[in-house]
Amino acid sequence: AQTVTQSQPEMSVQEAETVTLSCTYDTSESDYYLFWYKQPPSRQMILVIRQEAYKQQNATENRFSVNFQKAAKSFSLKISDSQLGDAAMYFCAYRSGAGGTSYGKLTFGQGTILTVHP
Amino acid sequence: SAVISQKPSRDICQRGTSLTIQCQVDSQVTMMFWYRQQPGQSLTLIATANQGSEATYESGFVIDKFPISRPNLTFSTLTVSNMSPEDSSIYLCSVNRQGFDEQYFGPGTRLTVT
Hints:
The complex is a heterodimer.
Chain A: E1 3-5, E2 10-14, E3 19-21, E4 24-26, E5 32-39, E6 46-52, E7 60-61, E8 64-69, E9 74-79, E10 88-96, E11 106-108, E12 112-117
Parallel strand pairs in A: 2-12
Antiparallel strand pairs in A: 1-4, 3-9, 5-6, 5-10, 7-8, 8-9, 10-11, 10-12
Chain B: E1 4-7, E2 10-13, E3 19-25, E4 31-37, E5 43-50, E6 56-57, E7 68-72, E8 75-80, E9 89-96, E10 104-105, E11 109-113
Parallel strand pairs in B: 2-11
Antiparallel strand pairs in B: 1-3, 3-8, 4-5, 4-9, 5-6, 7-8, 9-10, 9-11
């Protein structure tokens, strides 16, 4: 079974600074997807960024980028120019690329609470 | 993207009663998923609901406690039966459209059992 580990329960950053959230995962599969989700106090799960395992290039979405190290099974999220609205719980998630009964199921890490200081 | 609504958004229920949560999607989807998020915790998959077949439950979750219906390709319900305070959680509906990488979530239902 796949596992996802976020070793930072809480992180903080000053507004306009850069912060990196860590995530490691364990899998024996070669085809999979990795995601970062943001959950503000409204509890709505918002997709921040995704990475396909077969792609070597790190995904970027505006101020958000990932450092995907497939051999090390590491998937960190970098938030640049942090804004007050970035404050939320961030979850790292894994999804198998296989079909059948595994299709679409997400395995989540424990989450990291990000605080942004003005 | 997919727009997902859930009803109710929150509820306070007495132990021993049942609550049915509805999930409505604005487009047809093959698979719908129900997750539970206990207070301060991560999300755990309860079951996968496919239209026209029985729901598939994850380890630790049983149909008698969490019966699921999936009458069509845009709607599903999750019932939390014979509730106890340990069932106090946020319940989230999620969908994944075949061929699309993204997974979308509803706004969640916050359940408190007293």
